[in-house]
Amino acid sequence: MPPELHGRIFGRYNVGALHEVSGKLELGSPKTPAAVRPILLPPFLVARLREHLESHDHSHVFVGEDGGLYRRSNFSRRFWRPATDGSPDGLVAPVIPGMHFHDLRHTHKTWMIEDSVPEAAQAKRLGHRLPGVRGIYSHVTPIVEQRLVDGLQKRWERTAKPELER
């Protein structure tokens, strides 16, 4: 098991983002330096990622059947739209029709607000920087970071419990 999955994943500078250049996929730097950061994960997500990684022997987390990387357009058309809108054949029921992938960031921010996560921790988690004095003097301690992740874990347990009992 990679050490990153002991509760943290890391955005890396030189290979942290997938870019399509002249029709070819290449790993390169993310949009901003703030994307290069460790992110603490809740236990339910660590377990799911471990399970997924153990299901294949590719060096990347999410790959196609041939081991290739997903293009943004193909991922959306083949996986995201059917998962959110429901499949055209009706075998997969709609979950949140019209939801965009970026809406996950909005949802996460909203959950952090609901869980009273300090603004500095919200910004750090999302790869943002607070302006002015707030950004200079606000720091995120391990206790605050753990509280954020505990909130996500509790949210998962409340939501997933009825599903797991079926």
What does the secondary structure layout of this molecule look like, with pairings?
Blueprint: E1 8-10, E2 17-21, E3 24-28, E4 38-40, H1 43-54, H2 72-85, H3 103-114, H4 119-126, H5 132-137, H6 142-164
Antiparallel strand pairs: 1-4, 2-3
Poorly predicted runs of 5 or more residues? none
Number of helices: 6
Which structural class is indicated by helix and strand composition?
mainly alpha
Say how many strands there are: 4
Question: Could you tell me the strand content as a percent range?
Answer: 5-15%
Widest beta sheet: strand line-up:
1-4
What's the rounded overall pLDDT mean? 87
Please explain how this structure is put together:
Keywords: DNA recombination. This is Phage integrase family protein. The chain has about 170 residues and is mainly α. It has a domain at about 100-165. The protein is built from six helices and four strands. The protein has helices at about 45-55, 70-85, 105-115, 120-125, 130-135, 140-165; strands at about 10, 15-20, 25-30, 40. It has a two-stranded antiparallel ribbon with strand order 1-4. Strands 2-3 form a two-stranded antiparallel ribbon. Strand 2 (about 15-20) and strand 3 (about 25-30) form a beta hairpin. The longest helix has 23 residues, at about 140-165. The protein starts with 7 loop residues before the first strand and ends with a helix. The mean pLDDT is about 85.
